[in-house]
Write a structure and sequence with these properties.
By secondary structure, the chain is mostly helical. It has 10 helices and 4 strands; from the N terminus they run E-E-H-E-E-H-H-H-H-H-H-H-H-H. About 55% of the residues lie in helices and about 0% in strands. It has a two-stranded antiparallel ribbon with strand order 1-2. A two-stranded antiparallel ribbon has the order 3-4. A hairpin with an 8-residue loop joins strand 3 and strand 4. It is flat, with a radius of gyration of 46 Å. It starts with about 35 loop residues before the first strand and ends in a 16-residue tail after the last helix. Keywords: Coiled coil, Metal-binding, Nucleus, Zinc, Zinc-finger. One of its GO terms (cellular component) is transcription factor TFIIK complex.
Length: about 375
């Protein structure tokens, strides 16, 4: 959708003089075959006769008053849009897109890509609707960018051409596949009709020359016809699958390899650490006198309470000290230094009394 532009003089509903050449004053009303051309240098329209007369011998200035742009005959073409403002904006966008032809996969984040698009759109706006100074700065910026990133621009052009060519090959392959399917379907219909007619003739001959049951002969002939139709349909499907497919023998360069998504595993709050007890196994129930009253207590039947949790906690506390070996810890501490030094410091910090000899007295906090 293009932005609102003022109504062009090329709209016949706004100005009847639009059908008159500004150079030779030829009128389309008197000459219905009159054709108007424009040049992207200034977008001043003139008839094809004036273009041939003025620019055939070489470049010349635009004959429209107060223009003076140097024009060449090869630059003239027929306008696609009736509104020349839209025509000019489309040409500017094409020219800018040939230079600013970055691709989204070249940017690290989506925000960077959107900022790039906004920058390009601002440049286009300056070239279309800006003042003379803004247009000059925009043209200078466009030229500097072209000179700075010439190799990247050419590389993206080649990639774009390869994508367009690949898309064309794919479309041609799809059309060929569709045509092959249509021909195969038409051939199948014709063969089926021929088999039906042949089957009818054979059936009439057998009924005329045979003394057997007519109903049995008819059913047998119908089975033969159905079997032939099924076999022919299977052959046609195999041929289409091997040769008539739209993607047969088609390879598109530059596509990323498809990687199967990794199956997401259930969330593990312990990060893969196995917390299953190795020294005991919690049973469903224990026959113990200390648990008799607990099992009968109605308070233990409240929602959320579980005797299994109580069993597991009790067993963990009972077996928690089995992995601690005092002798090994004392030997390791003795190798690192005199244990009396650390013991004395700990005793003083706890407020107890200490004997510097081999006996230590500490107040029992319990």
């Amino acid at each position: 959708m293009y932005r609102n532009a003022p109504k062009s003089v090329s709209d016949p509903s706004s100005n009847p003089l639009d059908d008159i050449c500004p150079v030779c004053k030829s009128n389309r009303y008197l000459n219905p075959s009159l054709q108007f051309l424009i040049n992207p240098e200034c977008y001043h329209k003139m008839c094809s006769t004036c273009v041939d007369r003025i620019f055939t011998s070489g470049p010349s200035s635009c004959p429209v008053p107060h223009c003076g742009r140097t024009l060449r005959k090869k630059g003239f073409r027929k306008a696609f849009f009736t509104d020349l403002h839209v025509e000019r904006e489309v040409d500017i966008r094409k020219r800018v897109s040939e230079v600013f032809n970055r691709r989204q996969d070249e940017f690290e984040t989506l925000l960077d890509w959107n900022n790039y698009l906004e920058e390009v759109e601002s440049l286009v706006f300056d070239l279309v609707e800006g003042s003379a100074a803004e247009k000059t700065r925009a043209e200078e910026r466009l030229r500097e960018y072209r000179d700075a990133y010439r190799e990247e621009i050419e590389g993206n052009k080649r990639v774009g051409k390869e994508e367009v060519e690949g898309e064309r090959r794919r479309e041609r392959a799809e059309k060929e596949g569709a045509r092959a399917r249509r021909l195969a379907m038409a051939r199948e219909v014709e063969e089926e009709k021929a088999d039906v007619e042949k089957g009818k003739r054979d059936l009439l001959e057998r009924l005329a020359n045979s003394d057997g049951n007519a109903n049995a002969i008819t059913r047998q002939a119908q089975k033969v016809i159905l079997k032939k139709s099924s076999a022919r349909r299977n052959i046609t499907e195999e041929v289409l699958a091997s040769n008539g497919s739209a993607n047969s023998g088609l390879t598109i360069r530059g596509l990323k390899k498809k990687v199967a998504p990794v199956e997401e595993k259930p969330y593990d709050p312990f990060g893969g650490v196995n917390i299953t007890p190795a020294r005991f196994t919690v049973q469903e129930s224990y026959d113990n006198e200390w648990l008799g009253n607990a099992k009968k207590d109605t308070r233990h039947m409240a929602g959320g309470y579980s005797l299994q949790e109580y069993y597991a906690r009790t067993m963990f506390e009972a077996f928690s000290g089995l992995g601690v070996f005092i002798e090994e810890e004392v030997a390791d501490r003795g190798q690192k230094g005199d244990p009396s030094i650390g013991t004395a410091a700990a005793a003083e910090a706890s407020g107890g009394k200490i004997n510097i000899g081999h006996k230590m007295e500490i107040d029992d906090v319990f």
